[in-house]
Amino acid sequence: MKPSHPPRIRAVLLDWAGTTIDHGSLAPTSVFIEIFRARGVEITTAEARGPMGTAKRDHIATVLRMPRITAAWTEHTGEPPSDADVEELYQQFLPLQQAILAAHAELIPGVLELVETCRQLGIRIGSTTGYTRALMDVVEPLAARAGYSPEVVICSDEVAAGRPAPWSNFRAAERLGVYPMADILVVDDTIAGIEAGRNAGMRTIAVTRTGNALGLSAADLADAPADHVAARVAAAEAEFIAAGADACLGGVAELPALLRSGLFD
Questions:
Q1: Which residue in 2, 22, 56, 183 is the catalytic one?
Q2: pTM of the model as a whole
Q3: 85 catalytic per annotation
Q4: In this structure, which CATH number among 3.40.50.300, 3.30.70.260, 1.10.10.10, 3.40.50.1000 belongs to the domain 11-26+104-260?
Q5: β-strands 203-207, 11-14: how paired?
Q6: What is the mean pLDDT of residues 147-170?
Q7: In Å, what is the CA distance from 195 to each residue of 186, 187, 198, 200, 205?
Q8: Which of these is catalytic: 15, 183, 188, 189?
Q9: Which residues of 58-69 are buried (b: 16+ CB within 10 A; e: fewer)?
Q10: Mean per-residue pLDDT for 171-188?
């Protein structure tokens, strides 16, 4: 049934890890830590998560450029990190990430309800990701089996540059056949994803509780002290708003009510 007053939002572009699957965006974080450890350099969870949302090779390069890590790498290897080191780490990252993806492909609560709401409102559903096509070839069938199959999936290695560049969002809009860009809503759990949405001229909603900002599984989030979670969510919201997010939600489970509210009419 079509809505009597079509919403101004005509399409949503959803991120994957931390937004629609893998509560806490755990899969990539553990692999980043492991590949650096294998080269004799320890990185923290916060350092591993810092560039999350960008293409994975760019992510590795950004971590290597962090002053503490550059110094640790240089001390351990005797030479500053090079582009060849980035490429070697990236080639180590891909098979490790592929191997653990299946264990982190569970849908985040609310995804299927969001899909149904979008169907009822006539809103198209696309997606973008910092994962490569080879990685998404593991994830997509698992998500489809659980009932989630966005119309479009644009991977980081299918465009000229990953987030925060706008190209994946433009490619998704093109394939959906939806414009102007202001009629598209980007939903993401990373700063890079929000910046990519803004750079594409789209509206953006940041996800705080289920993704990279907190980095907690659903079970760990449930067990965490409420005041600790509230403080971290407040800090994440401030960072997202500073990056240009139009609004923040705990997770996609809150989005159907927002789409139905008329806020975007």
A1: 56
A2: 0.91
A3: no
A4: 3.40.50.1000
A5: unpaired
A6: 97
A7: 10, 11, 5, 9, 11
A8: 15
A9: bbbbbbbeeeeb
A10: 98
